[in-house]
Amino acid sequence: MDKRQEIARPDPKRIDEIIASYQNQKWPLIPLLQEIQEEFGYVPPEAINPIALALQLFP
């Protein structure tokens, strides 16, 4: 019997909303990642590139 549970895909619009709320802050990476993790229970791989692009970081 397979006991793994399927994790629901995070809403890309919600990820974008969270990222946008940190756009004008200085050093936003850690608080942004913390909020994403709090919202979804983990940092989804789908969030990495949008975060990197928004903060002008290399993914």
UniProtKB/TrEMBL annotation:
GO molecular function, one term: iron-sulfur cluster binding
InterPro entries from the UniProt entry: NuoE_N, Thioredoxin-like_sf
Keyword Phosphoprotein found: no
Keyword tags: Iron, Iron-sulfur, Metal-binding
Gene3D superfamilies: NADH-quinone oxidoreductase subunit E
A Pfam family hit: 2Fe-2S_thioredx
Protein name per its UniProtKB record: NAD(P)H-dependent oxidoreductase subunit E
